[in-house]
């Protein structure tokens, strides 16, 4: 099982204070990694740190401050050493019909889910290229596979991530920097419940689409990320991996 170990590895996880990001952090720490959580809410990060223990650190930062990302990466690598794994998991949600979504709202979602992902990946990849080693994981969504109402900005960003991955894989693979994408299904998280708790028809439709009939857990995404980030996945590059309980193929 050594191939699945992350002993001696350092991972940065954006959006790691709750939900899927926190689930990934838990599984990585179980596998022996040191984890740095990045997020906007210092209170959430502090609570996450308490639950995760000594192998967890955190930094409060808004990933939409694109101009500050290069200095964030430089500070991280100066204070923490080289980064082996980057998980782009920061997210926000906008539930609105397309014709009612303003340009600024659309751009705001893209800044979180796409622009920050590109900027962070670009900056952390620079030192990974020099060391000829690194694993980067992007978090997409089932809305990149199937059309859903009221998530036009989110769906656009999560679909664009796949193109971003494929292009960067073609450039970075020669330097042994791998980039893969996980597409979570409907996973128990604050963002999911914000979207469905007051929309029973939507919740019913979603559950009806999942053959197993239940939502996933954050750790389900964590173990998928662990596989892709570890030596067990060293020959996996440019993969789009749904972790969805069969929803993509359900009827």
TrEMBL record:
- Its recorded name reads SDR family oxidoreductase
Q: Which organism is it from?
A: Mariniflexile litorale
User: Which keywords does this Swiss-Prot/TrEMBL entry list?
Assistant: Oxidoreductase
What does the sequence similarity comment in the record state about its family?
A: Belongs to the short-chain dehydrogenases/reductases (SDR) family.
| Matches recorded under SUPFAM superfamilies | NAD(P)-binding Rossmann-fold domains (SSF51735)
Q: How would you classify this enzyme at the top EC level?
A: oxidoreductase
Does the keyword Oxidoreductase feature in the UniProt annotation?
yes
What's the EC number here? 1.-.-.-
Record's keyword annotation contains Oxidoreductase: yes
- List the Pfam families hit by this protein, alphabetically: adh_short_C2
